Amino acid sequence: MTATATRVRVPGRARLGGVFSGDTPTFVALFALGWLVTTFFQLDWWRAVLFAGSAVPAPALLGLFAALVALGLGSLLGRSFLWAEPAVLTWLDFTGHDRVRLVSGRVWTVWSARLLVLGYVGALLAAAAGVPSWTWWTGIGLLGVGSLVVLPLAAGVGPPLRLPVAVSAGRQRLVDGWAARVVRLVSVTFLDPTMMLPSAGPVPGRPVRSLVALALVGVLGRLRFAVPALLLGVVVALAHVALPGLPDALLVGIGAFAALLPFGGGIGQLWRSPGLRRWLDASDVALRAWHAVVFAVLALAWGLVVLAGTLLLGSPLAGAAWLAIPLAAAAVLRTATRPPVDYDAPGITDTPFGQAPVRLVAQVVRGPDLGAVGVWVLAAAPLGLVTVLVTGALIAWCVLR
After folding, report:
1. What sections of the protein cross the membrane (predicted)?
2. Domain residue ranges of the chain, discontinuous segments joined by +
3. Model confidence pLDDT, tens digit, residues 63-82
4. Which of 42, 229, 255, 372 could be 236's S-S partner, Cβ–Cβ 3.0 to 4.6 Å?
């Protein structure tokens, strides 16, 4: 392969994703840009929703932003930007172009996109809270330092258009990344989000001989998501203090669901393979039950992180919010064990947003549906016998059905 200074231009590809094509991408981009701009003209509404009209300590808001920066920029370490279509790679090699320039450009694009998103979120929070100017400069410094720190970890040090991470990525690594990307795109196209659950890595040890060992291996193979899960716990603890307008149950429910969802890939793979489940010679209830036990342990560990964070901040969570953690774990189990998507007679109906396939939409929201109902109950009602019974019923339904 010969490195040239010729700019890589893949034939048949729209520039910038077709944003300037005048077609649907242009409309979506203009609509999104307009909505993002208008949010800064509704600061009173955001202040009422996020802060309940009360003053928020600037250090708490800065701590939340720092945790979001660590979470957002740390995702670069997964190197999801290393992908290329086999046909494009063949064309690049045949014409003598340098594939490294193409991949390096994508690294800078993904890095810049994260900076823009984090900068926008930080600016919106700071503007809505009405923080002093030193807070703005501190937030800008956190974002700048974080971006510079994470880049040599994610990209290496080298010429801007020939980053070492792109040089070291061979053809097989790029094709594997492309295959994973295709699976994600297909899952969105066919409304089957369980296909997006991550695959497991190798787990050394003895052969799996029991259902509890199977559940443990499914979690251990995805330990690479433990650090993001812990960061989500820190984010929830800080958001509890920095965003007093949001219900604690909502923060904990969303945070626990997002943190535990990647670990549902093990049982999700079983439910996508009916033949494998028959080979295990175990009932669906037994498989759900043992995975529920393992998820309960994960939820307990995540809850301890949140508890430690809130205690250090001197602001413990409300009692009802803690019930959102087992509810989120049960919702993850329900999400991963949804039946295969049925495309027969989906039942099209009219909605304010156009026609929608009712059965397919119901299939997509299976899991988060009961979790959302439970979070609403926990946020609207005080902790009591009725709240506990309703939450327990929802958890049992998620585990058994």
Report:
1. 16-37, 49-73, 107-128, 134-154, 225-243, 249-271, 292-313, 375-400
2. 51-189, 203-401
3. 999 999 999 998 888 888 88
4. 255
